[in-house]
Structure formats: structure tokens, C-alpha cells
Amino acid sequence: MSLIPKGKERRTIKRHQLNEYLRVFNRNTMREMGSIGNISSNGLMLISTVPVLIGAVYSMRIILPGEHTPIDFEARCHWCKPDVGPEFFDSGYSIVNADSDIIDLVESLKEFFTFQEIE
């Protein structure tokens, strides 16, 4: 039984929606795991074509367009459910041992996708 009302947001850190998705790869196999749906410095939501194992820690890699150095990190899956599109699944992860690369990526994405006031 959940103490959180249905539809109530549980996370405390605001996540930023991405208009254009970034692909995430399994660092060990270099197979694509999915695309980032949203991200914060503590976690991310992945949109994939297959469900993933809840509780598992995954070695992930993001290769930014035009960049040569990948961003590698570990993330633990906390939930997985069907997406609104029947061919996709959404899964939520917490980032384990975030280093400066993933934090810099989140800050850059936040800056890029945030509307700035023009003076």
C-alpha cells in the first residue's frame, strides 16, 4: 500500500525533459539500451524497446553528437513499465557514483533547454 496519493510526484529533484533524445548504450556490449526521456544529476528515465530488469545496476555510456569522449556511468533500475506507445518501455534509474562528466552533461542540457529571458 502506497502512502503517496495516486498521480503525486515522488521525486524531489526537478528533471528536465529533453526535446531531442540522447541514446544510451550498454558500456560492456555497446548495444543501444534506449534514449533519455528526462535526466537529473541523480537519475534518468530511459525509453527503450525492451523491458529491463528492476534492481540491476547497468554500465551505461552516452556518446554526445560531435564529441569523441563518451560519458560513462553506472545506474540502478528502480522501475520499468510500458510506455504510452505500445512498442516502448519506460524505466527509471538512479545514477550510482556520478562523476563530473554526467553532472556537467545535466547542467549543459538544463542550460540548453531552458528558456532565457531577453533583456
TrEMBL record:
Domain of life of the organism encoding this protein: Bacteria
UniProt domain PilZ: residue ranges: 9-88
Record-linked InterPro entries: PilZ_domain
Record-linked Pfam families: PilZ
Keyword Transmembrane: yes
SUPFAM superfamilies: PilZ domain-like
Protein name per the record: PilZ domain-containing protein
Organism this protein belongs to: Endozoicomonas montiporae
